[in-house]
Sequence to fold (136 residues):
Amino acid sequence: MAETVFSKILRGELPCHKVYEDDHVLAFLDIFPLAEGHTLVIPKEPAPTLDQLSDDAAAAIGRVLPRLCRAVMAASGAAAYNVLQNNGADAHQAVFHVHFHIIPRLGDRGLGIGWKPGRLDDARAHELIRAISGAL
Fold:
Protein backbone atom coordinates (compact mmCIF):
# COMPACT_ATOMS: atom_id res chain seq x y z
CA MET A 1 0.00 0.00 0.00
CA ALA A 2 1.21 3.51 -0.77
CA GLU A 3 2.46 5.75 2.03
CA THR A 4 -0.24 8.10 3.37
CA VAL A 5 -0.54 10.81 5.98
CA PHE A 6 -2.42 8.24 8.10
CA SER A 7 0.55 5.85 7.90
CA LYS A 8 2.72 8.60 9.32
CA ILE A 9 0.20 9.36 12.06
CA LEU A 10 0.02 5.67 13.01
CA ARG A 11 3.82 5.50 13.27
CA GLY A 12 3.89 8.64 15.40
CA GLU A 13 5.78 10.64 12.75
CA LEU A 14 2.97 13.21 12.51
CA PRO A 15 0.90 14.45 15.44
CA CYS A 16 -2.84 14.10 15.71
CA HIS A 17 -5.55 15.16 18.15
CA LYS A 18 -6.30 11.64 19.37
CA VAL A 19 -9.72 10.95 20.86
CA TYR A 20 -9.55 7.13 20.97
CA GLU A 21 -7.06 4.32 20.44
CA ASP A 22 -7.01 0.57 20.93
CA ASP A 23 -4.97 -2.26 19.39
CA HIS A 24 -6.83 -2.05 16.06
CA VAL A 25 -8.36 1.43 15.71
CA LEU A 26 -7.30 5.06 16.02
CA ALA A 27 -9.71 8.02 16.08
CA PHE A 28 -8.68 11.65 15.93
CA LEU A 29 -10.06 15.08 15.11
CA ASP A 30 -10.02 16.11 11.44
CA ILE A 31 -7.71 19.13 10.98
CA PHE A 32 -9.97 20.43 8.19
CA PRO A 33 -13.35 19.88 9.89
CA LEU A 34 -16.72 20.40 8.28
CA ALA A 35 -18.09 20.99 11.79
CA GLU A 36 -16.70 21.12 15.30
CA GLY A 37 -16.07 17.59 16.51
CA HIS A 38 -15.50 16.14 12.99
CA THR A 39 -13.64 12.93 13.80
CA LEU A 40 -11.74 10.44 11.64
CA VAL A 41 -11.75 6.74 12.53
CA ILE A 42 -9.06 4.57 10.92
CA PRO A 43 -8.01 0.95 11.19
CA LYS A 44 -4.40 0.35 12.11
CA GLU A 45 -4.32 -2.28 9.38
CA PRO A 46 -3.26 -0.65 6.12
CA ALA A 47 -5.85 -0.99 3.34
CA PRO A 48 -6.69 1.63 0.73
CA THR A 49 -10.42 0.80 0.46
CA LEU A 50 -13.01 -0.93 2.60
CA ASP A 51 -13.29 -3.95 0.29
CA GLN A 52 -9.57 -4.62 0.88
CA LEU A 53 -9.83 -4.49 4.68
CA SER A 54 -9.78 -7.76 6.60
CA ASP A 55 -12.92 -8.94 8.37
CA ASP A 56 -11.14 -8.62 11.73
CA ALA A 57 -10.11 -4.98 11.13
CA ALA A 58 -13.61 -4.15 9.86
CA ALA A 59 -15.15 -5.77 12.94
CA ALA A 60 -12.84 -3.76 15.20
CA ILE A 61 -14.07 -0.53 13.61
CA GLY A 62 -17.67 -1.73 13.79
CA ARG A 63 -17.34 -2.35 17.52
CA VAL A 64 -16.10 1.16 18.30
CA LEU A 65 -17.85 3.32 15.67
CA PRO A 66 -21.23 3.55 17.47
CA ARG A 67 -19.50 4.48 20.74
CA LEU A 68 -17.46 7.18 18.98
CA CYS A 69 -20.61 8.55 17.33
CA ARG A 70 -22.28 8.85 20.73
CA ALA A 71 -19.21 10.59 22.15
CA VAL A 72 -18.96 13.06 19.24
CA MET A 73 -22.65 13.88 19.58
CA ALA A 74 -22.33 14.42 23.32
CA ALA A 75 -19.20 16.55 23.02
CA SER A 76 -20.39 18.66 20.08
CA GLY A 77 -23.99 19.07 21.20
CA ALA A 78 -25.17 17.93 17.77
CA ALA A 79 -28.57 16.30 17.44
CA ALA A 80 -27.65 14.76 14.07
CA TYR A 81 -24.54 13.55 12.28
CA ASN A 82 -23.28 11.76 9.17
CA VAL A 83 -20.88 8.85 8.94
CA LEU A 84 -19.07 9.06 5.62
CA GLN A 85 -16.71 6.51 4.08
CA ASN A 86 -15.37 6.93 0.51
CA ASN A 87 -13.62 4.31 -1.63
CA GLY A 88 -11.57 5.37 -4.63
CA ALA A 89 -10.76 8.69 -6.24
CA ASP A 90 -13.99 8.71 -8.25
CA ALA A 91 -15.86 8.44 -4.94
CA HIS A 92 -13.99 11.48 -3.56
CA GLN A 93 -11.46 9.54 -1.48
CA ALA A 94 -8.45 11.77 -0.87
CA VAL A 95 -6.37 9.67 1.56
CA PHE A 96 -5.98 6.08 0.39
CA HIS A 97 -6.18 4.42 3.80
CA VAL A 98 -9.63 3.29 4.93
CA HIS A 99 -11.22 5.94 7.12
CA PHE A 100 -14.63 6.90 8.40
CA HIS A 101 -15.70 10.49 9.02
CA ILE A 102 -18.07 11.22 11.90
CA ILE A 103 -19.43 14.64 10.96
CA PRO A 104 -21.77 16.41 13.41
CA ARG A 105 -24.54 18.53 11.90
CA LEU A 106 -24.46 21.87 13.71
CA GLY A 107 -26.78 24.43 12.14
CA ASP A 108 -25.52 24.89 8.61
CA ARG A 109 -22.16 23.23 9.44
CA GLY A 110 -21.66 19.60 8.52
CA LEU A 111 -21.83 17.47 5.41
CA GLY A 112 -23.73 18.83 2.42
CA ILE A 113 -25.04 16.12 0.13
CA GLY A 114 -26.35 16.28 -3.39
CA TRP A 115 -28.51 13.22 -3.96
CA LYS A 116 -29.75 12.29 -7.45
CA PRO A 117 -31.84 9.13 -7.04
CA GLY A 118 -32.70 6.91 -9.95
CA ARG A 119 -35.28 4.14 -10.11
CA LEU A 120 -34.69 0.38 -9.79
CA ASP A 121 -36.96 -1.89 -11.82
CA ASP A 122 -37.73 -5.44 -10.70
CA ALA A 123 -35.90 -7.19 -13.56
CA ARG A 124 -32.69 -5.29 -12.88
CA ALA A 125 -33.09 -5.86 -9.13
CA HIS A 126 -33.18 -9.63 -9.69
CA GLU A 127 -30.06 -9.45 -11.93
CA LEU A 128 -28.22 -7.48 -9.26
CA ILE A 129 -29.31 -9.87 -6.51
CA ARG A 130 -27.90 -12.83 -8.49
CA ALA A 131 -24.65 -10.99 -9.26
CA ILE A 132 -24.06 -9.74 -5.72
CA SER A 133 -25.04 -13.05 -4.10
CA GLY A 134 -22.80 -14.90 -6.53
CA ALA A 135 -19.85 -12.65 -5.66
CA LEU A 136 -20.21 -13.43 -1.97
User: Anything to note?
Assistant: Residues 55-76 form the longest helix (22 residues). The beta strands are 18-21, 25-29, 39-43, 80-84, 100-105. The two ends are 24 Å apart (CA to CA). The chain has one domain: 5-112.
